[in-house]
Amino acid sequence: MKIRSVCASLAPKRELNGAQIAPLAKLADEARAAFITAGYEVQTTRLATTPFAQWVKPLTQSRAVEAAVAAEAEIAKHGFGYISLGPALPDLPESFRFVSDMLAATKNVFVSAIIATAKDGIDTQAVRASAEIIQRAATLEPDGFANLRFAALANVPAGSPFFPAAYHAGNKPAFAIAPQAADLAVDAFTNASSVTEGSRNLTESIETHARALTKIAQRLARKHDIAFTGIDFSLAPFPSEAESLGTALERMGVPAIGMQGSLAAAAILTHAIDAAKFTRVGFNGLLLPPLEDFTLAKRAAEGGLTINDLLMYSAVCGTGLDTVPLPGNASVQQLEAVLLDLAALALRLDKPLTARLMPIPGKVVGDETSFDFPFFANTRVMNLDAAELGSAFSGKENILLAPRKRSK
Description:
By secondary structure, the protein is of the alpha/beta class. It contains twelve helices and eleven strands.
């Protein structure tokens, strides 16, 4: 198991400056060294802020871009690899208009957008604005790569250390840990003789690593007087067979992820995470990104894994639609339909879900992707079985959806 990121977070006032970043950078550097000494590879240290729309003043296009560029320069000075400036907010609709320009002006800045909350429901204008961001961001680089740095958020609270969903709440700084732990699930089920044994193996493995990480994190929290909020043990993969969540699902006995049995296998893995005892923050589900997972990429390329499959797995365990390669001509209306489905799942099931969709310019369904990025496994463009929604869906409104009530 590796650590994908140590993510520090803070609340800028009117701008992000070095004086605010320095204490968190010192903690992050010490955390990296301590975790490496304990035997964990630390891939990145990252910084997240409160939603940019709350502290970028005045909230204009030029000021938002300026703030993003300045933030990227500041984190580089202090050793952070990436920064998330948090989400555009439905109650500040103009903030959505600035996101693609912020992405265009930077390389290491992540931004998101809130499309649904339990309180306000699905904001259809935010859904459309997010679909427009995805379409515009797809054109910023020849391979559509800029959409790696954007996600639509449905029912996602602050605190997760995973990007692009990461953002901060409150005034006091904090930090959290995002492991890259799909290999724990692979190991847990490789030689397991039963579901019960494999699940127990995974739960015990998570708890063992969580105790080691938490001990170090709490010591650093006391030393620096910066709150440690917890670990997001979502089973993040890497594009190698041994670190693939798809591999873990297949080691359980599913012939190929996407076939019947996959849903049960996914639910079983998340149940094992739920059973583990540790300080939690964020999703603690399954990250199922076709472009970041060796086996998922393979099954998507074969046509056996679809977007509808990924949405279905999100209903029992997943964190949404992540790094999904789509046709370059995907329309705003098609993207809207996907985002609406994801938002509806998030609210009816009362769980956080994200959508990181990646239309690839010039590519059509079945074309091979050609990303040159060490965290990606190339696959084929997936079918977007969507069209413009009409009738009642054509209005501008907030759609309120409460979680299902159980019969007594």
